[in-house]
Amino acid sequence: MNTNTNRLLAIYAVTLMTAVGTSAMPPALRAVEGYFGITADVSGGLLAIFTLPGIFLTTLLGIMSDSVGRRKILVPSLAIFAVGGVWAFFANSFGDLLLIRLVQGVGAASLGALNVTLIGDYYSGTERTKIMGYNNSVLSVGTAAFPVISGALAGISWKLPFALPVLAALVMVLVLMFIRDTDSPRRTTSFWLYMQGALSALRIKTIVVLLLVSVVTFALLFGPFLNYVQSYMKNILAPNDPNILPKIGAITSIMSVSTAIGASFLGKLTQRYSHKLLLVVSCVLYAVALSLFWIMPTFGLLFIPSIIFGVAQAFNQPNVQSLIAAYAPTEQRGVFMSLNRTVSLLGQTLGPVVFGKLVYYQLSGHDEIFRLGAVFMCGAMCALVLAFIVKMQKQLVQ
Question: Taking a C-beta distance cutoff of 8 angstroms, is the pair 256, 309 a contact?
Answer without folding.
Answer: no
